[in-house]
Amino acid sequence: MRPIAINSFLKHLGNAILNSYGMLFFSKNRLFASFILLVSFITPFAAACGLLAVIISLIAAEALGFNRAQTVDGLLTYSVVLFGLGLGSNFEFGTAFSILLIVGSLLTLFLSTVLNAILNKRGLPALSLAFIISTALIIMASKSFDGIGLTHRQIYWYNETYAIGGSKLVDLISWIENWNMPEYMSGFFRSMSAILFQVNIASGIILTIGLLVYSRIAFLLMVYGYAVALFFSYTMGSGGFLGFYNMGTNFMLVAVALGGFYIIPSIRSFLWVLVLVPIAYLMVSGLGTFMLQVGVPLFSLPFCLTVILFLYMLGLRKTQLKLALTPIQYYSPEENLYRYVNGKERLLNIYYQHLQLPFLGEWVVSQGYDGSMTHQGDWSKALDFVILDNEMKTFRLPGNLPEHFHCYNKPVLCPCDGIVEEIIDHIEDNEIGGNNVQQNWGNSIVIKHAEGLYSKLSHLKKQSFKTTKGAFVKKGDIIALCGNSGRSPEPHLHFQVQSTPYVGSKTRAYPISYFVTRNEQNMAFSNFTVPQEGSFVSNIQPNSQLVAAFNFQPGFIMKVEAPGFKTEEWEVFTTIYNETYFHCKAQNAYAYFINNGSVFYFTNYFGEKHTLLYQFYQTAYKVLLSSEKPLTIKDYFPVNSFVSTPIKWIQDLLAPFYLFIRLRFESTVAMDSNQMGGSTQYIHSSQIQELLWKKTTLKEASILIENGNIAAFNFISKDRKIKAVCSI
After folding, report:
1. Where are the domains of the chain?
2. Are 334 and 655 in contact (CB under 8 A)?
């Protein structure tokens, strides 16, 4: 191998090893993983076996041609760590032991790879099944091997500890072991240490502290799972005894896995832990009797069976609203929860077709959903629009002809791309005050936008259609003129969304994507909501300079420089799922975004936070690509984006039950008044912390747009105002 290739593999090896240890606690936090690795060396021989086993498996995976992306996350190899720890804890060292360590490590890797491939297809994790199978095989096979024997190392583990830390370390651990603490507390810490095949309180305390720093929710669930098991044990008449090895650990891991890792942490997930831990308890008691006859420990089998059983059952549901499976795994209960809540609030609109208002200019909603006049029953989810003048009238005097009404003969626009499904174009307009109840809908057009999604526009003017049945129409195309046909005493435009292609189809509730709402003199940006009766509404008019500035296509490269930061180069890529993102290679940072022509917004960020890309992510979190009206656009960051540690820890502990912190983002587009041509725009943004009733502005920033390009953006870093200069 060349030096560059060797360095690359060693870097991969280091990352994969740390992730393998982190996954023992469902984590990919490298600092916590390093902490776990160090704690494992309190029993150095077993720790060395665990480390050597994972190194052997990773070298084998590389030699077999596995993609490094498959092995770097530790999912295939954390069972190998457990195998090495288990082997080193139970058997004496020797030639036969060394051979079994190598062969068993490879067997565990093979089993882990195959089991992951089989179970992942069903959306299930393989967990530590590979470790259980391979270790059980080794234990049963070792009975016929004279060259390998069981060890008493776990009984005399102080000797090993003395070898690495001398008398001071032994005295410290002995002092902790002799603390006068309740049995249930010492049992909890021993159960924590048992994850690393140890039996001491000191390791358990150290791991508990590390877990608390890494994840407050995981810590809470560990304690909660242990407490539930303890209560169940008392109830069943077992005297509250939980074996630190076979029992306590299984229950604690079940609580974390199903209370906050594979399932989004919530009050429901915590309530289900009350049921799932007793199920695991039954498995421990029942399977333990059987495994005792075979001569093989249970290890984490009850944990694996309980988790896989429950997740498989949840996957068979029609809806996941009440107990949500983690859609994207961030390997942190807090991250999973905060991003899920944030995405649920702001990203559900990606599942909607983007319908716009079907007219030009500003109209008023004369009758909204469930309107008292005609929007009733199965046809209640509809909107009627008219135009009002400054005197709040729909017509000019004398107002006795359709032509006198402001909306009559006005263009009607296609609300979204689609195919014309039906047109009715033979009905005469009514006289003012008249009604044609026999031809209720008047001249109408039905447009198919997707399977099961149609829009209908009615009361149109006869022979005003600009399209034909079966034709493709684009959003914003003029398709007809507003008229007064059908059940229409005066000109107005009727608009509804429906699930079937017929003129008389029942209505369905469906939001308008982006529009401006005016009530009296106040104007507001509205997104993915239904216009309310009495409100003045108009479409968003994109600004060509802003649209061009944020039109980041694959292959686009931007160089960004700022004092106090490394110079960064961002390139735009697209995934196979058509997700578009910035990638900063130097910082290994990623920022995913969406640009739908009306709004630009970021959806996710991965990487270090002391980067210019992260500053831009915060500054341009959501931008309205219009400067026609001074509109403020609002959104929310995930709670853990930039909250101080003491408050964040309290929120983390309460997060499954209640969120008392919100991080609001606001942005406004302003034109440079000195620029006659309007070629310069500023986007001002703020980040506001909402803590109960108190609101605090955490950060203010701005973006300078010149001639259709992002020229610079300003932000505050460490109480200094920083200007980042951008160049293409």
Report:
1. 1-180, 363-539, 544-727
2. yes
C-alpha 551/C-alpha 572 separation (Å) is: 11
Residue 28 above 70 pLDDT?
yes
Residues 154 and 139: their CA atoms lie apart, in Å, by 16
- The 10s digit of each residue's pLDDT in 446-485 is 999 999 999 999 999 999 999 999 999 999 999 999 999 9
pLDDT greater than 80 at residue 725: yes
CB atoms within 10 A of CB 301: 24
Beta-bridged to residue 453, according to DSSP, are 450
Model pLDDT for residues 607-641, shown as the tens digit of each residue: 988 899 999 999 999 999 998 778 899 999 998 88
Question: 115, 130 in Cβ contact below 8 A?
Answer: yes
SS3 449: strand
**Contact, 702 vs 722, CB < 8 A?**
no
- Average pLDDT in the chain: 90
Task: Map tokens 């909402």 to a residue.
Answer: 690
CA-CA-CA-CA torsion sign (695, 699, 702, 703) = negative
Say whether pLDDT at 568 is over 90.
yes
User: How far apart are the C-alpha atoms of 13 and 7, rounded to whole Å?
Assistant: 10
Answer whether CATH 1.10.3430.10 is correct for domain 1-180: yes
The architecture that CATH gives domain 363-539 is Distorted Sandwich (2.70)
C-alpha to C-alpha distance for 239 and 233, rounded to whole angstroms:
6
CA distances from 320 to 314, 315, 510 (A): 8, 8, 21
User: What is the tens place of the pLDDT at every residue in 504-538?
Assistant: 899 999 999 999 998 877 889 999 999 999 999 99
**pLDDT number for residue 651:** 93
- Please give the C-alpha separations between residue 58 and each of 34, 73, 479, 534, 652, in angstroms, as whole numbers: 18, 11, 63, 66, 35
Cα–Cα dist 683/669, whole Å: 5
DSSP assigned state of 396: -
> Within 13 Å and on the Cβ side, how many CA atoms surround 244?
21
Residues 6+ apart with CB under 8 A from 171: none
Strands 622-624 and 599-606: antiparallel
Decide: 444 and 422 in contact? Cβ < 8 Å.
Answer: yes
Q: Is the torsion defined by CA of 289, 291, 296, 300 positive or negative?
A: negative
- Rounded to the nearest 10 degrees, how much is the dihedral formed by the CA atoms of 400, 401, 402, 405? -50
Instruction: Give the phi and the psi of residue 401 in degrees, each rounded to 5.
Output: -130, 150
Q: Cα separation of 280 and 51, whole Å?
A: 30
3-state SS, residue 29: coil
CA distances from 696 to 461, 643, 654, 687, 690 (A): 54, 12, 21, 9, 7
Place of tokens 């159960």: 191
Q: Please state, in angstroms and rounded to a whole number, the distance separating the CA atoms of residues 538 and 288.
A: 69
**Amino acid identity at 513:** S
Q: Same CATH topology for 1-180 and 363-539?
A: no
426 and 439 Cβ atoms separated by less than 8 Å: no
CB 460 within 8 A of CB 444: yes
> Own/partner pairs for 205-209, CB < 8 Å, 24+ apart?
205/176, 206/35, 206/39, 207/36, 207/39
Task: Map residue 431 onto helix, strand or coil.
Answer: coil
C-alpha 201/C-alpha 186 separation (Å) is: 6
- Indicate whether 245 pLDDT > 50: no
For the chain, how are helix, strand and coil distributed in percent, rounded to 5?
40, 25, 40
- Provide the residue type at 434 as one letter: G
